[in-house]
Design goal:
Elements (H helix, E strand, L loop, with lengths): L2 E2 L12 H11 L4 H22 L4 E3 L7 H9 L17 H10 L13 E3 L6 E3 L2 E2 L11 H11 L4 E6 L1 H7 L1 E2 L10 H18 L3 E5 L9 H13 L6 E5 L9 H5 L5 E5 L6 H8 L5 E7 L9 H7 L1 H7 L3 E5 L18 H5 L4 H15 L5 H19 L6 H8 L12 H12 L16 H11 L5 H22 L3 E2 L11 H4 L3 E4 L6 E4 L2 E3 L3 E7 L6 H9 L4 E7 L1 H6 L9 H21 L4 E5 L14 H16 L7 E6 L8 H6 L4 E4 L20 E4 L12 H14 L18 H21 L1
Parallel strand pairs: 1-12, 2-6, 5-7, 6-8, 8-9, 9-10, 10-11, 11-12, 13-18, 18-19, 19-20, 20-21, 21-22
Antiparallel strand pairs: 3-4, 14-17, 15-16
The chain binds glutamine and zinc ion (ZN).
GO biological process, one term: methylation
InterPro entries: Cbl-indep_Met_Synth_N, Cobalamin-indep_Met_synthase, Met_Synth_C/arc, UROD/MetE-like_sf
Protein name: 5-methyltetrahydropteroyltriglutamate--homocysteine methyltransferase
Length: 763
């Protein structure tokens, strides 16, 4: 009998019910008890979905009002001092405290600066970063995981509580104040975890899953060594620990982990299938092995027959000690495919969301136990049919696309001349002043723009009317930029709902869902497009807009595209070809767009790649391979233009140092980049490496509503000019302006243009 279990389930609800409820609570439209009731209803519904799918152990403790890491900070009482005080007379409570930590404010309690938020490993999910300081103590504070486990048990579910492990929580925490070694906090921390386990034992829970995804990182020795003592201390009578690892293989940690005093180990066989045999060799005879064989990071139906074949040796060796599940929590996929109506039947048949993945896990468990019931057989047969249909589909495999990628040569990735030559040709043609000013692409997405789009979507506006209203927006945006005195203008991206979806909708090989929501952070969800097949561009995507925009002005108009790596990263990728292959197809499609723009008279073209850095593999040894193809795909996109056409790129982060050589290798003529929040931290990268091309270090933070002061921006550029010759510096904000209002944008850009003018006089 192979046991099936759920490593974790999405919490947002099929129709984003949790988002709607929490936002209503924040607005004051829902009271706390109503919010609590909605949370309880959703948990119960999600356990039911898992159980109905046939899962043996449902997950508890994976629910969160905002974020699961934040849940653990609440559990441990790791609440920064600034959130402790009560505002007079107003009752504070744990719920509002966690909302204040996440968002800076809540219906009750004093506002304070929110905690930092960052991406969870290489996913698009963001967690609230724990704040750590020397001498910090921990105290069992929130008992949510215990209470919710009891809640599930009372409703008759087989509950397996899930915790994020103490080492992962600590590793992801950030030191505030005096630097110190975070491991000093471990003893205290483990004591609280011990209490939680003891209380879970009292509920009657048998298995507790403890997630330590940091085991898939290159961990320093002391951290790896700490595992043994931590898990020794965590041994609790009546509790069996399932140590869960995911997002990669254990590699150097394999032996340490196999020998830890825990009863079970979960490994990710989607990302690292080769682990199975080494684990089978090493695992002590008393331990349970949970194999993560259903992809928790992607939306494809699995090939169950192939998995059953792969698991044969495990079944023979482990018998009842074999468990099956998804590679990681299903948090990263949408909830239920059955609600989908926008997808055609064929595409739909290829997919599995969380509910369907639970069915697959359960079917595997049953099949491995020798269950040959109709239901199990039907699911395996369905998966065979789907595997065949995907292999043969002409919608997926298109020879003309494959011929194009086969024909890629290094020459295609190469501009005609080196940067120095291009630079003078471009300066001559574009006639730009010293310290040219520009923006990153988008201007405020006003209520009016959103209203027009929604009318168009509801078919209350025909295509022509919609196009005209967007053209008016573009005209107005250009007038404003002219009045501000900017040098290189943009059309403002009014016609784009989203920088990836906009392109995906116009490319072949992409599908879109109606309810395919995935939590990004807190109540924010995204609906990633699905890349199902070979990608091509049936027709130009942005040319008409850019040409229209250029016709409105005698100034230089910058064309605006999203780059291949970013489109790939923010979509669900195929699992039947490598990401590199899809990226090359995207690059070729975008290259056609770039050359069409050039033909149409657009002399400056920006190809945004904000996602290049977040695509970095978790292990450093894998970086070069990824960066090589990512950089090549960018070069392929940009490489078809004449020397005097200026290629820009944009990135939104400042940790630049460790990949600067690759960024330089992209060979964009101009790169604009975020720096202002980190006070030009980026410049550290230039201590040892001289960035060869032009660069626009963002001079103000667009994420803040504060209008930047001139002196501040001027100092930043002057600082930059010490490292980069002024002839190669641009002046621009650090990201697109779509989330801001016009009055603040106008004020900020007035200051920015003024600063550039003053600098021109000084240099
Ligand atoms: N061109 C895009 C914009 O301005 C860039 C967005 C981004 O960097 N994420 O909105
Ligand atoms: Zn940006």
């Amino acid at each position: 009998m192979a046991t099936s279990h759920c490593v974790g389930f999405p919490r947002i609800g099929k129709f984003r019910e949790l988002k709607k409820a929490t936002e209503a609570y924040w607005r004051g439209d829902l009271d706390q008890s109503a919010l609590m009731a909605e949370g309880k209803r959703l948990r119960s519904m999600h356990w039911r979905m898992q159980q109905d799918a046939g899962i043996d152990w449902v997950a508890t403790g994976d629910f969160a009002w905002y974020d699961q890491m934040l849940n653990h900070s609440m559990m441990l009482g790791a609440i920064p001092h600034r959130f402790e005080g009560n505002i007079e007379g107003q009752a504070d409570n744990l719920l509002d405290t966690q909302f204040r930590m996440a968002r800076g404010r809540a219906p009750s309690g004093q506002a304070a600066a929110a905690c930092e938020m960052t991406k969870w490993f290489d996913t698009n999910y963001h967690y609230i970063v724990p704040e750590l300081h020397q001498g910090q103590t921990f105290r069992l504070t929130s008992r949510a995981v215990i209470e919710q486990t009891i809640e599930a048990q009372e409703q008759g579910f087989n509950a397996k509580p899930v915790l994020i492990g103490p080492l992962t929580w600590l590793w992801l925490g950030k030191v505030k104040g005096e630097p110190f070694d975070r491991l000093e906090l471990l003893d205290e921390l483990v004591t609280v975890y011990g209490q939680v386990l003891a209380e879970l034992a009292e509920t009657g829970a048998q298995w507790v899953q403890i997630d330590e995804p940091i085991l898939a990182l290159d961990l320093p020795q002391p951290w790896l060594q700490a595992f043994e003592s931590v898990y020794n201390k965590l041994q609790t009578p009546a509790i069996k620990i399932m140590l869960a690892t995911y997002f990669g293989g254990l590699q150097d940690a394999t032996t340490t982990v196999a020998n830890l005093p825990v009863e079970g180990l979960h490994i990710d066989l989607v990302r690292a299938p080769e682990q199975l045999l080494s684990e089978l060799d090493r695992l002590p005879a008393y331990k349970t092995l949970s194999v993560g064989v259903i992809d928790g990071r992607n939306i494809w139906r699995s090939d169950l027959s192939a998995i059953l074949e792969q698991l044969k040796p495990a079944r023979e060796k482990l018998g009842e000690r074999l468990w099956v599940s998804s590679s990681c929590s299903l948090l990263h996929v949408p909830v239920d495919l059955d609600s989908e109506e926008r997808l055609d039947e064929e595409t739909k048949s290829w997919l599995a969301f969380a509910v369907q993945k639970c069915e697959e896990i359960a079917a595997l468990g049953k099949a491995l136990s020798g269950d040959n019931s109709d239901k199990t057989r039907a699911l395996v047969a369905l998966s065979d049919t789907v595997a065949c249909s995907r292999r043969a589909s002409r919608r997926i495999h298109r020879e003309e696309v494959q011929q194009k990628t086969d024909a890629i040569t290094p020459e295609l990735m190469q501009r005609h001349s080196p940067f120095a030559q291009r630079y003078s040709l471009q300066r001559e043609k574009l006639k730009l002043p010293l310290f040219p000013t520009t923006t990153i692409g988008s201007f405020p997405q006003t209520k009016e723009i959103r209203r027009q789009r929604s009318l168009y979507r509801k078919q209350q506006l025909d295509r022509q009317e919609y196009l005209e209203s967007m053209q008016q927006e573009i005209q107005a945006t250009i007038k404003r930029q002219e009045a501000l005195g900017l040098d290189v203008l943009v059309h403002g991206e009014a016609e784009r709902n989203d920088m990836v979806e906009y392109f995906g909708e116009q490319l072949d090989g992409f599908a879109f869902t109606e309810y395919g929501w995935v939590q990004s952070y807190g109540s924010r969800c995204v609906k990633p497009p699905i890349i199902y097949g070979d990608i091509s561009r049936p027709a130009p995507m942005t040319v008409d807009w850019s040409v229209f925009a250029q016709q409105q002005t005698s100034k230089v108009m910058k064309g605006m595209l999203t780059g291949p790596v970013t489109i790939l990263r923010w979509s669900f990728p195929r699992d039947d070809v490598s990401q590199k292959t899809s990226c090359e197809q995207l690059a070729l499609a975008l290259r056609e767009e770039v050359t069409d723009l050039e033909q149409a008279g657009i002399g400056v073209i920006q190809i945004d790649e904000p996602a290049i850095r977040e695509g970095l593999p978790l292990r450093k040894a894998d970086w070069p391979e990824y960066l090589d193809w990512a950089v090549n795909c960018f070069r392929l996109t940009a490489g078809g233009v004449q020397d005097d056409t200026q290629i820009h790129t944009h990135m939104c982060y400042s940790e630049f140092n460790d990949i600067i050589e690759y960024i330089a290798a992209m060979d964009a003529d101009v790169i604009t980049i975020e720096t202002s929040r980190s006070d030009m931290q980026l410049l550290d990268a230039f201590e040892e490496f001289e960035y060869p091309n032009e660069i626009g270090p963002g001079v103000y933070d667009i994420h803040s509503p504060n209008v930047p002061e001139r002196e501040w921006m001027k100092q930043l550029i002057k600082k930059a000019a010490e490292k980069i010759p002024p002839e190669r510096l641009w002046v621009n904000p650090d990201c697109g302006l779509k989330t801001r209002d016009w009055p603040e944008v106008e004020e900020a850009l007035t200051n920015m243009v003024q600063v550039a003018r003053e600098l021109r006089a000084e240099y």
